[in-house]
Specification:
Layout lengths: L2 H20 L4 H18 L8 H14 L2 H17 L25 H10 L3 H13 L3 H5 L6 E2 L4 E4 L8 E4 L2 H14 L14 E2 L2 E2 L4 H14 L8 H14 L4 H8 L5 H4 L6 H16 L17
Antiparallel strand pairs: 1-2, 2-3, 4-5
Length: about 300
């Protein structure tokens, strides 16, 4: 880009970042969208405010040939946002690129496989984290960012904040999970976090530091392989398996969806209807289900490796 083009792009790029922020996009979305806007600018070596439909078709054709449909969809949404919220121009993106609708099925662990993975996990911090993630049906970050204040041992529930949908929710707290959390917390006694990362005082740049995401993801894959489980196992598999196990025990899909904090009931509502009786008994069912898993807990006094 020449100097004038670069100057115009810089101004529009800052407007783009401002618009993303004002529209309430998450930091992850801002990072992805802005990255694709920079990429399309580099692709044409020009400010992307005057691209023709033909040029955009050529750009997306190159993406389809080299990237996944998921990446193509993100690029499409990023450029569409740029046109609508920065340039104030309509952009009919459907004729340009329309990723196919693909519905994949995730691998599900059996209760025995869940127990095998947790039992084979040697470090208490990871073992407790996997149990909490499974028994509460949490997303990876939801479990990592749990604090002492989120655990209500009187009402036996957990307050989940700053979730993916940006909506707080409560989930039942099984007795076995409360016991596991207390056992692990006694090993570090952090004043606020349940899963602190790094070395004491678990602070980086003045902010509390939680366990490394990469560490928990890599460890569960290694443990699953050690257990002879050939499925594609990751932390989210525990959440997906938890929901499936509840369904098998008679909890309605609608109740499960509420428990997991899914935004839309459309996918689950087509299969069954929510019943008041099942909703009221879901906490009892969770406790009963977890009590059937025989867990051998790691030594709380054993030394643990530091996070990277």
């Amino acid at each position: 880009m020449n100097t004038n083009e670069q100057h115009r792009f810089n101004n529009l790029y800052q407007e783009y970042l401002n618009a993303l922020t004002l529209q309430g996009k998450s930091p992850k979305t801002v990072d992805m969208y802005s990255r694709y806007l920079r990429q399309v600018s580099l692709f044409f070596d020009t400010c992307p405010d005057a691209l023709t439909a033909a040029e955009l078709k050529g750009y997306f054709l190159s993406l389809v040939e080299t990237k996944s449909w998921s990446a193509v969809k993100i690029a499409r949404n990023a450029i569409q946002f740029f046109y609508r919220h920065v340039l104030n121009k309509p952009w009919d993106w459907i004729p340009i690129v329309k990723p196919p609708v693909v519905q994949t099925l995730q691998d599900v662990l059996s209760p025995a496989e869940v127990a095998a993975i947790i039992n084979a996990t040697r470090e208490l911090r990871y073992q407790t984290y996997y149990w909490v993630t499974y028994s509460l049906g949490l997303r990876l970050s939801e479990a990592l960012n749990l604090t002492i204040a989120d655990i209500d041992s009187h009402l036996m529930r957990v307050h989940l904040r700053f979730t993916k949908s940006k909506k707080d929710r409560f989930v039942p707290l099984p007795q076995t999970t409360l016991t596991a959390l207390r056992r692990y917390w006694a090993t570090h006694r952090h004043p606020t976090l349940l899963f602190p990362g790094g070395k004491a005082p678990h602070v980086r740049e003045g902010k509390p530091m939680v366990m490394d995401k990469g560490g928990v993801q890599q460890t569960i894959k290694l443990v699953a392989k050690h257990c002879g489980i050939s499925k594609n196992v990751h932390v989210h598999t525990l959440r997906h398996s938890f929901a499936t196990h509840l369904l098998q025990r008679g909890v309605s899909l609608r109740a499960i969806q509420t428990h997991l904090g899914h935004a839309s009931p459309i996918t689950t509502a087509r299969y069954t209807r929510m019943t008041e009786e099942v909703t009221q008994n879901s906490a009892l069912m969770i406790n009963d289900m977890l009590s059937l898993l025989n867990i051998t807990w790691a030594d709380a006094n054993a030394p643990e490796a530091d996070d990277e």
